[in-house]
Amino acid sequence: MTRTSKVGGRDEEVARGAGPALLDVRGLRITSRIGGRRRVIVSGMDLALSPGETVGIVGESGSGKSMTARAILGLLPPGLFAQGTVHYEGRNLLELPERALARMRGADIGLILQDPYTMLNPLLRCGRHIEDTLRQRDKSWRGRRAHRDEALRRLEEVGISDPSVADRYPFQLSGGMRQRVGIAAALARDPKILVADEPTTALDVTTQKESLALLKSLQSTRAMGLILITHDLRIAFSMCDRVYVLYAGSLLEVGTAEAVEAEPLHPYTLGLLLSEPPATRRVSRLVAIDGTVSAADDVADRCAFAPRCKWKQEPCERGKPPLADLEGARQSACVRIDEIRGEIGELRRAAERPAEPVGVLAPARPLARVENVRKVFEGRAGRAGIDGVQALAGVSLEIGEGESVALVGESGSGKTTLGRCLVGLETPTSGGITIDGVTASDYGALSVQERRRLRRTVQMIFQDPYTSLNPAHSIGFTLREALRVGPEGTHDLDGSASELLERVGLPAAYLARKPVALSGGERQRVAIARALAVRPQLMVCDEPVSALDVSVQAQILNLFKRLRGELGVAYLFISHDLAVVRQVVDRVYVLHRGEVVESGPVDEILDDPHHPYTARLVASVPRSDRDWLSGQP
């Protein structure tokens, strides 16, 4: 990446990183050698980071974001190799021996991962993680009391004032608390640079906002450089000074966060922006990027995005386009940007035009009714209520035929428990559930015929399709098994399985594949196809898109909307993402600590929340402006 600019002054300083570079990455190339063949994963990545600056690396899964971070830290998996230079304090980190890199990690460059479980030893108490890190920082420290006191101070720095947390194991904490402990451990040696790899993807919106605000505050007080890896552009724009857009191992666009948000100058960046579900309005259809990310090696000799680009022409495939300087210290790798810039702007403006609000629908015939359902998980004494956990405290809701209803709330609010009660994976402690006229409070008490009827009436889509698909079986086997328990008259199993795949937008050739050979979005489509095999009237969708990239998320949300229109299937959509909820449901139930605190039409609830908890959820939806993290409206 060229570091010259046609524009001088403060704008250039912000775009390139004000002051001398704390970290300077040039020509980073990551390759793998598997089976005697060398493949490219990242090609020619350049990046600069100044003290106190935040840069974001954005892109879909498979773009090379995490591998770039691992290469900087010397943590590439076996079989992967990095070339180029990564300069930090006059040293090229790619040339350092492992012993020197081990001393540098944590002390100079810290790392926060997406799942704090991967950072925290489940066999160590939380305080011990920090105490051990402190001993590595300063071996002259003596006495357990000194380490304990400093560990408690570090926990308090990340907002944990309860000293008993130090004595708990990671599994005894919520996801947000675990992430705070992970941040405290990563910062215990006072690194000058922090690399945060999707640090909030697994968290609900309120915990996500709290964690990001914490990171930003700690960075400010320490003048620490921060590299934030994310697929959420709203978060990147609210957190970062500059943004690097990475795709299939190639940099496609670089610029200040404000400039990239105001006007994307590459078709891929535009696609990412338009794939984000808007939190403030409903659109008839999300603008999804067709296809999936190419392997970097397959597009090494052309524009990496060309296979998915609507503006592709012959020059785009003639050779690999350079990352060229534009005005305002912007950079883009699109050779046609001058020709298509106006069209990109018009598409952006068209996507932002207000859509029709969701009207108040006429009441449909009740398909599922939940009445005053309580669920208490038994504690150590083996009896409900004795050291037990009350997950649901008298929940009532109703879903009509063909209606789409959302159940929203933070982690631990009881959403998933209620969904599992509906499909018979949990039995309520008390209360009633009726589905299509069948009493479904206790599936175990039903006759075989009634249970079979319920299994056909209601199906569940899980958050992670990989854990719900048998990895040993092909997609064809999975779908044929589902079809066998479907309605009578399914004789051509192979033909019906092919039709199911076609309905969810996958080719029949996928019948021979196993789940491991599919992307996350493709596996979720297979999970939907399997649920459709029994022709259900209701699908319980438990966070079905939260683990997906924004472009794949848009594809799946569009699929849900299309299936509802074609088949008349009803949904119970369980989610903490209110931007997603607005796009797919008619009514919302807000669940807090096992109780419904507010319900009503989706636009009314999200535009004018009456309950303080609902208002807090709405305020936690990521926005691209800096005021979002500060809590200002």
What's the total number of strands? 22
Would you tell me the structural class of the helices and strands?
A: alpha/beta
Distance between the termini: 38 Å
Helix content: 25-40%
Please name the fourth-level CATH homologous superfamily of the domain at 402-426 and 446-630.
P-loop containing nucleotide triphosphate hydrolases
What shape does the CA trace take? Answer: globular
- Placed side by side, the strands forming the largest sheet appear as 6-7-8-3-9-10-12-11
Integer average pLDDT: 87
* Annotated CATH architecture of the domain at 402-426 and 446-630: 3-Layer(aba) Sandwich
CATH class value of the domain at 402-426 and 446-630: Alpha Beta
The largest sheet, given as strand count, sense and whether it forms a barrel, is:
8 strands, mixed
Question: How would you describe this protein?
Answer:
This protein is an alpha/beta fold and 633 residues long. It is 34% helix and 22% strand. The strands form 4 sheets. An 8-stranded mixed sheet has the order 6-7-8-3-9-10-12-11, with helices on both faces. It has a 6-stranded mixed sheet with strand order 18-19-20-15-21-22, sandwiched between helices. A 4-stranded antiparallel sheet has the order 2-1-4-5, covered by helices on one side. A hairpin with a 5-residue loop joins strand 11 (324-325) and strand 12 (331-332). It is globular, with a radius of gyration of 26 Å. It starts with 9 loop residues before the first helix and ends with a helix.
Labels describing this entry:
633 residues, six-stranded mixed beta sheet, 34% helix, 22 strands, alpha/beta, eight-stranded mixed beta sheet, Rossmann fold
